[in-house]
Amino acid sequence: MNTYQIIAAFSLLTLYALPVTGAPPPVNLVKNGSFELGNVGFTSDYILSIYDGGYVITTDPSIFNGNLVSVADHTTGAGNMFSGNGHATVGKTVWESQNIHVLANTTYTFEVWVMNVCCKPSAAFPDPASTNPASLRFDIVIGSEIATLGNMDTNLYAGIWDSFSTNWLSVTSVDITLRITDTNTEIFGNDFAIDDIRFLAPVPEPDTYAMFLLGLGLLGFMSAYRKSKVD
């Protein structure tokens, strides 16, 4: 079997298997968006602390602050999450990704899970304990420009994971960063957790793969046919 026949055979075999396997899942471009690697892959204006304007990477916020609810992460129920204690100063970045390169005229999907972690119900913290839940803003930063993807308040009741998701269409091929800010500057009750931050790059649909592989197969057969005619 010559090279052209091998290409054709491989293409057709892959095309035959495609309806079973389907296209691969989207690729998450955020490094350590689930925080399983610990305190890496992002920057923050918050400091490593359990106090106001601080954060910890933890499996349970109550480990570091006994007033916070005992909850598991969103990813596996046994992994890490980002737990923040709201900052009193306006505009402080909670979390910002490393540089992410995007392609021009491409639709990306941003997803994140957030939770109110204040507080264990008590005389000081009735249920719902938090009257000032975090109000998170999600931005894309391109140089000096900021495009806001949306805003979301954490649930008034603590211990409930809620998701935010939206699409974003790029204009040019450029490096961006993703940024999360807590616009609430109240100290009391402004405690939150973040997990599973994803910025998903699109993948070709199965029919796109099919057409590509079919093209390869036809190209291989045509090349083999022409070669046989010459020989």
UniProtKB/TrEMBL annotation:
**Which UniProt keywords are given for this protein, alphabetically ordered?**
Membrane, Signal, Transmembrane, Transmembrane helix
Signal sequence coordinates:
1-22
Highest taxon of the lineage: Bacteria
Q: Does the keyword Cytoplasm apply?
A: no
Q: Which Pfam families match?
A: PEP-CTERM
Q: What InterPro entries does the entry give?
A: Ice-binding_C
Ice-binding protein C-terminal domain: which residues?
202-227
Question: Where, by residue number, does the polypeptide cross the bilayer?
Answer: 208-225
Protein name, as recorded? Putative secreted protein with PEP-CTERM sorting signal
